[in-house]
Design a protein that fits this description.
Order of helices and strands: HHH
Largest sheet: none
Helix content: 55-70%
Number of helices: 3
Shape: flat
Oligomer: single chain
Length: about 110
């Protein structure tokens, strides 16, 4: 007989730990939304929205962000080395936000 190793439960415990960590992230997101919204209740809809948020973040992390980073590397450059951007390729930055409009929107939503 070749050498037989015992099956360890470390891998299974690691999977369970990851699942519990994901469940705690979902619960924290729901409680944050419920605490900061006057009309939100902790129902199954809030939990499904939280699950969808995490699925969407995984998609962005593994597909959208790496593809965007690769596209930035492949953009054409001018002779002087400056990168040329088309208006559709520009990334939004914090300085591009219209804070006055955001403040008006938040005040309008809080008065409802």
């Amino acid at each position: 007989h070749p050498i037989d190793f015992r099956t360890a439960i470390g891998f299974k415990v690691a999977i369970c730990g990851g699942a519990l960590a994901l469940a705690s992230c979902i619960c924290l997101r729901v409680t944050y939304n419920v605490d900061n919204s006057s009309e939100a209740r902790a129902c199954h809809r809030e939990y499904m929205d939280a699950v969808w948020f995490h699925v969407e973040m995984l998609f962005r992390m593994f597909f959208c962000w790496p593809c965007a980073a690769m596209c930035r590397c492949c953009r054409s450059t001018k002779d002087d080395g400056a990168t040329t951007y088309s208006p559709l390729q520009q990334d939004k930055e914090l300085k591009d936000l219209d804070f006055e409009q955001l403040r008006k929107d938040s005040q309008a939503s809080s008065t409802k």
